[in-house]
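Revision sheet: structure tokens.
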Amino acid sequence: MKPSPGRSITGLLLEFSSAGEKRPARCEELLPLVYDELRRMARALMRGERKNHTLQPTALVHEAYLKLVDQSRVEWRDRAHFLGIAVPAMRRILVDHARRHASAKRGGGWQRITLDERIPGESTGEPDYDLLALDRALESLADEDARAGRVAELRLIGGLTVRETAEVIGVSPRTVDNDWTVARLWLARALHAEGEA
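Predicted:
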């Protein structure tokens, strides 16, 4: 279904929040508007995956979308709010998938993640890390510094730019840059320490 001309993600999300019984119809209008955003995030997340990975970006987008629109308690505010909730939803899906795969096959279920400005999985010469180890490190970072943890999640997991991350969190791009620097150093130390354990 094609979105109506001139429809904005924010406008449709606001209508979606108050749609009540008409929510399924609004879902059909919303998907084309947010699909490209979700697909971009999924491609960034899946870029470092092996070619025969059992979860494809399209499947990740559809699973995340279904989880997002099924949240009846969420009062969607705007595009940034949607992305701010979409990133952790995708993270949970990938981590759950990796855990299932790891339990089914010893040593499996990992995803390479790089801690630089590029898209996760892009070759940089920096060491790559297991998705489950990264998830644990992100949880620890969030316990230490919630905003830096959120910045790291949005940048690494969501593939958001500094400007998009600033919009989602509601801070300046300079603050995001500072938090991102701290987060990368913190995560690199934590992942290195876990690798030696």
